[in-house]
Amino acid sequence: MDLDVYLAAILGGDTRAFGGWMSGAEPRVRDSLRSFAQVIDVEAVLQETLLRTWQVAPRLVADGRPNGLLRMAIRIGRNLAISEVRRTKATPTDGDDLEAALAAGDRPISAPDPMLRKAIAECRDKLPAKPRQALDARLASAGAQDDDDLATALRMKVNTFLQNFTRARQLIADCLHKRGIAIDQELGA
Length: 189
Known about the structure:
Blueprint: H1 7-11, H2 15-32, H3 42-56, H4 68-88, H5 95-103, H6 114-125, H7 129-141, H8 147-153, H9 158-178, H10 183-188
Helix pairs in contact: 2-3, 2-4, 3-4, 3-9, 6-9, 7-9, 8-9
């Protein structure tokens, strides 16, 4: 399906049209970032990609080929991922290696760490109001609601909601880092 059917409305600032576009584009953009999954936070890059796509969509010049906005979003996402890899000096994973790692992922899941849980809760409690609201809304919905609905419930624009959520994640990561908790090691354990 050519997702550019939403483009005219998106250019007019229609957030619902952008939400419709995102529902079709998000899996494809996420899949394009798959090779980076073991070395960067793909979810954060994906959210930043969608936010930037919304911001630059009005400047898109159609080239006559289908899915112009999607192709631009994929390019934005890959550029962001590459920048993040350079910033962290990490190495992206080959698709075959990623599949092998996923297949080998049948290791037992360890029990939750109560000290880590407590540290996360304390860092969450220190968040400013708006980022905390965005984080709490996303966690409470457990994926049942899309960001547009969550933003509406919080009386925020979608891009403001996404910015607040991303800020909350970063602030919690920084807080945990200050406590000497290496997030990558905790998630990999």
